[in-house]
Amino acid sequence: MNIRTVSTQPFSDQKPGTSGLRKKVTTFQQAHYLENFVQSIFDSVNAPQGATLVLGGDGRFYNREAIQVILKMAAANGFGKVLVGRGGILSTPAASCVIRQYQTFGGIILSASHNPGGPDGDFGIKFNGCNGGPATESVTEAIFAKSKAISSYRMLDAADVPLDLLSETTLGNMKVKVINPVSDYADLMESLFDFGAIRSLLQGGFKIRFDAMHAVNGPYAKEILERRLGAPSGSVMNAVPLEDFGGGHPDPNLTYAHDLVEIMYGTDAPDFGAASDGDGDRNMILGKRFFVTPSDSLALLAANATLVRGYAKGLAGVARSMPTSAAVDRVAQALDIPCFETPTGWKFFGNLMDAGKVTLCGEESFGTGSSHVREKDGLWAVLFWLNILAVRKQSVETITREHWARFGRNFYSRYDYEGLPTEAANGVMRHLRDSFGTLAGTAFGRYSIQACDDFSYTDPVDGSISNGQGIRILFSDGSRIVFRLSGTGTEGATLRVYLEAFESAVSRHHLDAQEALKDLIRIALHISELQTRTGREQPTVIT
Ligand code: VG1
Ligand code: CO
């Protein structure tokens, strides 16, 4: 066996963000850049000799090269076996499923999720532990510390491993098993949902459209929706994964999933539409000419969970990220189950699920999931909805409006200001923090500020504390404005402004969210001085 120890020098910028390390492909292509980070992972996670690792990615540009490098480094670092998805492919939720199913030591997932791909696009890498979930903050901090002190990495000299056929080969002393990336995941879905009921719904003429956005979920959706559930061929669109996502932005929202939006708002629109992102963990849910916000979707799934086989016994509890609307809190209250508010990013849900405290989790950023895996899960959310629709036999719109009538409506919107100069974005946050003293108690028309703070979270399971997780402006009627800097961007800073207003009056539930939120938007811009401080009049994206 020919294992080389290669000398290297640290890069100073390998700090994992909200979901792993995300950088431009060109950054990853620098000599030693990927290798340094992978060695920093291996040096931080203390895998026992001979451990099994899961490996796969969303298939974006540079996926194949990175997989080969990681395989050779895993062999040189004493792993006994790697389970790798055929073609180097695993969606993020499927990787989580495989890690759990085969009780492996953990996995490495290659993805920059919803960020564009291609030679000029983004790439990313993260480590997930044996529970199938993203590494906790203590682990990502250890990885970052290693990356700043690294002086060498270990690499096996060997030929590339063929990955395009199911096979079992060896690489040095390590076994490499190429697995079907779809089947274990599809079987798990079949165990949670009533495929018979969904099949009958579809046979009865209920029309669906799923937009895979030329990303990883194409093959998963084809297998599950078309093959196993019998949706007519063509129900899954943009189903062929491409290394650059066809030049698109694989982010399932009303702006970027425009092909689907056109169909769902056109004449003769299908009954149900959905899309997922680059790595398959996000979802957008649409009815006929109707959009369900991710925060409402989480609340709706919680309220209807017992209609679905895998959740018939009820929910242990629910959790949402801090900026996500409090719609699910109202459902939790009615069900008399606990509701947790965590910082942004799926890694904070893992401890709660492992401890059996929550069953469903969600984020406003088109992420929903449950304890069936430890990642958010796009197709799972779609199937959950289809199962509910098959049981209730009502439209998406009717189900949502009935939900609002019962629980009230949390109007919600997020404004993203992307690619800001970092100093200007930090300046807005600093200014807001400095204003806390004068803001509390101030009234703006019918809104008066009750409190403001910088969100801090104490994990109820391990007691770890995460500070500085976003600025909250809380109003006396339950409305909120949240300001947060993104931790997934690769250029400059992205400032997110989250707006939420609660409305109990059914007579106002039909309002457009932008209309219902216009006063709050004005207040947000006023108190943050965002426009003057950043020179930006308009947000880049509104969701
Ligand atoms: C964004 C979302 C966050 C999500 C994260 C990863 O993070 O806001 O809710 O968990 O992306 O999603 P940020 O730090 O940019 O706001 V994925 O689908 O990109 O892995
Ligand atoms: Co994603």
Summarize the structure.
This protein has 18 helices and 27 strands. With 543 residues, it is of the alpha/beta class. The protein has three domains: 3-181, Alpha-D-Glucose-1,6-Bisphosphate, Chain A, domain 3; 185-407, Alpha-D-Glucose-1,6-Bisphosphate, subunit A, domain 3 (Alpha-D-Glucose-1,6-Bisphosphate, Chain A, domain 3), CATH 3.40.120; 409-542, Alpha-D-phosphohexomutase, C-terminal domain (TATA-Binding Protein).
User: Considering the protein shown, what is the CATH homologous superfamily of the largest domain?
Assistant: Alpha-D-Glucose-1,6-Bisphosphate, subunit A, domain 3
In the CATH hierarchy, the architecture of the largest domain is 3-Layer(aba) Sandwich
Q: Please describe the biggest sheet, giving its number of strands, its sense, and whether it closes into a barrel.
A: 7 strands, mixed
| Spatial sequence of strands, sheet with the most strands | 2-6-5-3-4-9-8
Q: What is the number of helices? A: 18
Given helix and strand content, the structural type is alpha/beta
**CATH fold node name of the largest domain:** Alpha-D-Glucose-1,6-Bisphosphate, Chain A, domain 3
Give the terminus-to-terminus CA distance.
Answer: 53 Å
Task: Name the bound molecules.
Answer: alpha-D-glucose-1-phosphate-6-vanadate, cobalt (II) ion
E-strand count: 27
